[in-house]
Every structure is written in structure tokens, then in C-alpha cells.
Amino acid sequence: MSYDVLKIKNMTFYAFHGNDVKERELGQRYEVDIELKIDITRAIQEDNVKFTVDYKKVYKVVERIVIGRRFNLIETLAHHIADECLRNFNILEIVVRVRKLKPPVEGILDYVETEIVRQKV
Q1: What is the mean pLDDT of residues 26-43?
Q2: 84, 65 in Cβ contact below 8 A?
Q3: Please, which of 20, 40, 67, 95 could form a disulfide with 35 given CB 3.0 to 4.6 Å?
Q4: Hey, how many other C-beta atoms are within 10 angstroms of the C-beta on 82?
Q5: Active-site residue 22, yes or no?
């Protein structure tokens, strides 16, 4: 089976996730990337968004989860995003990357990122 990939990159949100009490109180910026493996054959043939995944709706799902809930782990956050997208959209596979830009690490680094891959069962 062939598939196409829709990517939504660097969605940025201010949220209150983390295992550290300060992180949950002060919050920080998080970035999220989504890669959706989808079949857009019919959407291309008919040039119609109703036969593909509407990225505006995906963005709203991600926003609702990142801002509306609190998780200790960015891995859990990524899992919930993937699970909700798989349930609500016609997706074969999803890759979710969540970046914490200022992790509570004593050292110099750009960010901490988790990546999960889930498939429709």
C-alpha cells in the first residue's frame, strides 16, 4: 500500500507539564511536530479537502490536549495526541514529536524531545 505524508511542524504552545513542581507552576513553551501517513489519492483526484485530513482540525486537537491537560511526562503528552488523532482522523500512522525547550537540566542543551510512532490497528 502506498501512502502520503502530511507534516505539521513547530506548533508552539505555552503549557504546564512536567514532573518538577516549578515546571507545573510556571509553565513554559512546548513545540509539537506531527507527521500523518495518509492516503490522499481521492483528495487529489477530486481536489477536495473532505477526502484528506484537515490540518486545521488536527491543530485544534493538538492545541486542546497540550493546553487543556497537564502531564508529568512529555511522552504521555505525545501518546495522548497520537491516540486522539488516530481515533478522529483517517490516518494510517502518526509520528508525534514533543519538545520541551527549557527542561530542568543543569547543563547546556537546545531542548529535550520525545518521538512516538503509532499505527491504526
Answers
A1: 96
A2: yes
A3: 95
A4: 20
A5: no
Q: Which fold has domain 4-119?
A: GTP Cyclohydrolase I, domain 2 (3.30.1130)
The residue annotated as part of the active site, out of 9, 37, 50, 100, is 100
pTM, entire model: 0.93
Q: List all residues 6 or more positions away from 90 whose beta carbon is below 8 Å from its beta carbon.
A: 38, 39, 53
- Are 58 and 46 contacting, i.e. CB atoms less than 8 angstroms apart? no
Q: What is the DSSP string of 10-68?
A: EEEEEE---SSHHHHHH-EEEEEEEEEEE--HHHHHHT-GGGS--HHHHHHHHHHHHHH
Domain residue ranges in the chain: 4-119
User: What pLDDT band is residue 1 in, cutting at 50, 70 and 90?
Assistant: low
d(CA 19, CA 27): 12
Per-residue pLDDT, 2 = 76
